[in-house]
Amino acid sequence: MQATDKIWLNGELVDWAEARIHVASHGLHYGTGVFEGIRCYATDRGPAVFRLLDHLERLRASARLLYMRLPYTVGELRRATHELLQANGLAECYIRPIAFYGYGELGVHTGSNPVDVAIISWPWGAYLSEEGQRSGIRVMVSSWRRVDANTIPHAAKATGVYLNSMLATHEARRCGYDEAIMLTDEGYVADGPGETVFAVRGGVISTPPLSTSILPGITRDTVLRLAADLGYPVVERPLIRSDLYLADEVFMTGTAAEVTPVRSVDDHELGAGPITLALQQAYWEVVRGRDRRYADWLDLVDVGAPAEAEA
Ligand code: PMP
Fold first, then answer.
1. Mean pLDDT for the chain?
2. Alpha carbon nearest to ligand 1 atom 5, residue
3. What is the per-residue pLDDT across 53-101, written as a single tens digit (0 to 9) for each?
4. Gyration radius (Cα) of the chain, Å
5. pLDDT per position as a tens digit, 160-176
6. I want to staple 252 with a disulfide (CB 3.0 to 4.6 A). Which of 38, 114, 195, 243 is the partner?
7. Nearest ligand 1 atom to alpha carbon 221
8. Is the minimum distance from the CB of 37 to ligand 1 under 6 angstroms?
9. Of all atoms in ligand 1, which is nearest to the CA of residue 255?
10. What pLDDT is recorded for position 34?
């Protein structure tokens, strides 16, 4: 990971190397945190954060599901993100807001522990490699099931949930695949470790419904809208693993993964098909501000003004 100048920590911009927390922080021990992954893209009007408010609203919803009170409003977190991006001066970057129970008590109950909030930004290229984005990735169905709705609320992007994702990723890499797809306890297709899953058959695009132990992906929402606008039929329905094996195309989406074609699932060969590539192209156009119909999704960062002028 490439260090940048500043990190926003509990209301202040601090030097990257100084953004420290105590080892007795509750979140470190029990995974009691919520976070977001957001991207800022270079556009011809300067850097623009893609769907920033939607991500911050999801952060707030994740916190609610953990009974956590965020000490900042969505508006304050938006301003903090802008301040940070102005200070770091990157044309394109990944943004990671995180809120977690901090230092105080170390019982499992969160007690009176403070909620610490940080925002980190740094350059991060293609999550599943440039080659993967061009030609597709090889995916396996994981032996690890995605957390069930009654185990941990799956709509929460909570830090502890990512132990589930880590195990699935680790298994996939150990077995020589690029990425995993997790099923629900009942055997329906859920999510990748950090991605939503889509299948295309006979020109129809399918993806699991939000009730299927998946994270309500913001890229999922973007792609559903783009697909509908491009005239492709879209259905949200439960999928089983053979729907993936028999699909004409499978692709995965996420803020980090963007739109990534899947070239095989459990060694059933698929192609980087035309619908995936059309959606990938449409996604690039939107996030880079070249399709003005979706300009509302871009939150432009004013890097012209010096950071001090923001006070
Ligand atoms: N599922 C999981 C489990 C994820 O971690 C992510 C990444 N946040 C996604 C789906 C995709 O969500 P989004 O498009 O909002 O990044």
1. 95
2. 194
3. 999 999 999 999 999 999 999 999 999 999 999 999 999 999 999 999 9
4. 20
5. 999 999 999 999 999 99
6. 195
7. 14
8. yes
9. 16
10. 98
